[in-house]
Specification:
The complex is a heterodimer of chains A (320) and B (336).
Chain A (H helix, E strand, L loop, with lengths): L3 H26 L14 H8 L7 E3 L5 H6 L4 H8 L33 H15 L5 E6 L6 H12 L4 E7 L2 E2 L2 E2 H4 L7 H5 L3 E6 L3 H16 L5 E6 L17 H8 L3 H11 L5 H24 L17
Helix pairs in contact in A: 1-2, 1-11, 1-12, 2-9, 4-12, 5-6
Chain B lengths: L2 E3 H15 L3 E5 L15 H9 E3 L4 H13 L3 E5 L10 H14 L8 E7 L14 H5 L4 E4 L4 H13 L3 E7 L6 E3 L13 E4 L4 E5 L3 H14 L4 E5 L2 E3 L3 H11 L2 E8 L4 H13 L8 E5 L8 H7 L3 H12 L7 H5 L1
Parallel strand pairs in B: 2-3, 2-4, 4-5, 5-7, 6-7, 10-11, 10-13, 13-14
Antiparallel strand pairs in B: 1-8, 6-12, 9-11
Classes of the chains: A alpha/beta (320), B alpha/beta (336).
Amino acid sequence: MDNKNELIEYFRKMLLIRKFESKILSLFDENKIFGTTHVYIGEEAVAVGACSAITKDDYITSTHRGHGHFIAKGGDVKLVMAELFGKETGYSKGRGGTQHMSDMTIGHLGSNGITAGGIPIATGAGLAIKYKGFNRVVLCFFGDGACNEGYFHESLNFASVMKLPVVFICENNLYAMSTPVDYAFPTKDISCRGSSYNIDCNIVDGNDILKVKEAVECAVIKAKKGEGPTFIECKTYRHFGHSRNDPKIYRSKEEEKLWLENDPIIRFKDYLIKNKKISKKRLESIEKEVKIEIENAIKYADDCPFPDPKDVEKYLFYES
Amino acid sequence: MPEIFYIKALQDALFEEMDRDENVFMMGEDIGTYGGCFGVTRGLLDKFGEKRVIDTPMSESSMVGWGIGSSLLGLRPIIEIMFMDFITLCMDQIINQASKMRYIYGGAVKTPIVIRAPAGAGRRYGASHSQSLEAMFMNIPGLKIVAPSTPYDVKGLMKSSIRDDNLVLFIESKLLYWSKGGVPREEYTVPFGKANIIKDGSDITIVSYSRMINECLKASIELEKKGIDCEIIDLRTLCPLDLDTIIKSIKKTGKLVVVEEGCKTSGVGAEISASICEEAFEYLSSPILRIAGLDIPIPYSPVLEDVTIPDYQKIRSIIIEKLFKDKKLQYKNIMN
């Protein structure tokens, strides 16, 4: 069982993601952030639970809805914020934006603007781990929509054939943009697709951080023993729409209400309080710390310079 | 300098580079025991084993992505796409991922990947196994395009491609595999972006690459007989593109012809023509001429395929008709 401080750290990270994403939405109205974004609110238990099961040396690949994975893997909130502000000090020096960031120093192999685009990349990273004989693993995050792309099938097949150390983590939030899973899939669960490729499958409550963590831990142990990939389907829900301008006309208020009551952060907070893992005072101080961290990130991003337009062509090629 | 086949020079480059750097590995369909559809990878499995010569399931879309992921962890994959036509299945990973990755991650990563793609018509394979799609890729920032015409270049450019830290599309000509040329025994590389002046001349500049170089050479011998002195430039790489060498030549000849096997519309010739109009229009004494494949799918029947792609006779006739007709070169006699 995780010790108290670890549990509290999971809570802090989930809260940091929640507050970060909430702030992002309001920063659009202030014209500080441009374009669009896909917020992770409601799915925090998946990223934090999964990333808590691996070490700094392990890798992840992420999606268009990637801020949560970044923070969960130990990314710097200031640098994510600066990237969203389009600044030179952002993770991608203002060249990438919300869907295109990476941090090799923490094993984050990149968020990805193409649905399922990260699945083959994670699989290739798994190939390199095996090739080099590292004792490492890749967590590959993707949504339910990605499971209907060709990459999903090709890469799960290859990872299984080659016994690659990859954990495929499907964040089934019930909608691929607006398309419901019960429309787009002929089966109740997605995870059964793993069986076709002789991959162990697991369905977990994606709003229960400890359940997610436990499932990923098992998969990681297996992967590091050379026993190949696992497919974990995390049932969860995004509280907001697909992207910023989504009117959410495709789902009912009743359904939303049900899932809001099943909020992963409230659930984990209740768990911590009930099991006396956290004091009220500590809770309050965490909320304060998180607020300050985000305020600092905004201030940092605001103060940093935009990239020099003269450098617009920089970083296209690696010049040795 | 010993004369060896293009395919052997290519194999030598692969063997030597895999020997030199254990991070270099190969991935592709039927490249192991089978030795690759055209036999290029024959012997690699025996020497380097299954770890470094990986037969993949038939999954072109993901294959490039597997290469990307492995390159992010320090490997240097060489991916064989059996026929260049099949590269259309890999477009997302090439266009949206590998070629953009360094830029959109602000320079934080590098993707040293070589994609080998045997291209070209002339073997009666039909529309899905005969295309020359390189021009499409010139429109994509962030990848380098290499298209060697000789055994010397195929070896030297493959070595440069493997050692390059970017995505390289390496176009091989199916019909050149069994052509011979001199290749030195000692180690060498051929740099990117340096076109090769295959033949000096003063009347006309002919720019081409890959297999069409041979057709241009044959055409130039015939044109020579009619008193037309051709300068032939082999581009070697389409990105980076060596415009300087072309401009220098035009200053001398005033005439430019671009020859390619792919479709004419929005082709390599279109790009070069536009660039030359922008950069060196004042040196031209006549319009730029594009000689290219017809804008149709490559047909199967030999009589149809042969008229679809350029050959030396077509190159010769078009050049005379379009550029030298007025110069009292007795066009009719030449055609006889």
